[in-house]
Design a protein that fits this description.
Layout: E1 4-11, E2 14-21, H1 26-33, E3 52-55, E4 58-61, E5 74-76, H2 89-96, H3 106-121, H4 140-146, H5 157-168
Parallel strand pairs: 1-5
Antiparallel strand pairs: 1-2, 3-4, 3-5
Helix pairs in contact: 2-5
Amino acid sequence: MTENAQVGLGVNGRPCRIAVDTRTSLLDLLRERLDVTGPKKGCDHGQCGACTVLLDGRRVNSCLVLAVAADGAEVTTVEGLADGGEPAPIQSAFVECDAFQCGYCTPGQLCSAVGMLDEVKAGWPSAVTEDLAGAPDLTDEEIRERMSGNLCRCGAYPNIVEAVRRTAE
């Protein structure tokens, strides 16, 4: 026997209220019920990062988050990064740096980059941050570590690092 629950959340600035099976992932709610297809279903196990979205500004693997756990939250997907039709700075940098090839991982990469840049601004260290008392220095190693949860089968990693660095500057 399945149980339904009402979930109210904002998706890219638009409020929505919908009944969902309590076992439904946030990714499946977005893609199958709300027709928000930017986040991709790659591994469906939280290992590839293709489904990364921002949940109240924090990056999450939407395949691992139950939709009912997002009740009352604001979800930002790649579709919500642009501001008034203008691409977000990270989106422009991805184009300029050719930071995508097939593009399958790109929506998750972009959302993850936005989230990680906010983490850096907040002073959050990573596993490779050398000075834990100061602001993290956004070196290539630091960017790679912070983006390590997002896989790219095409291997565009050097260009992704460059796009993130340009955006940070």
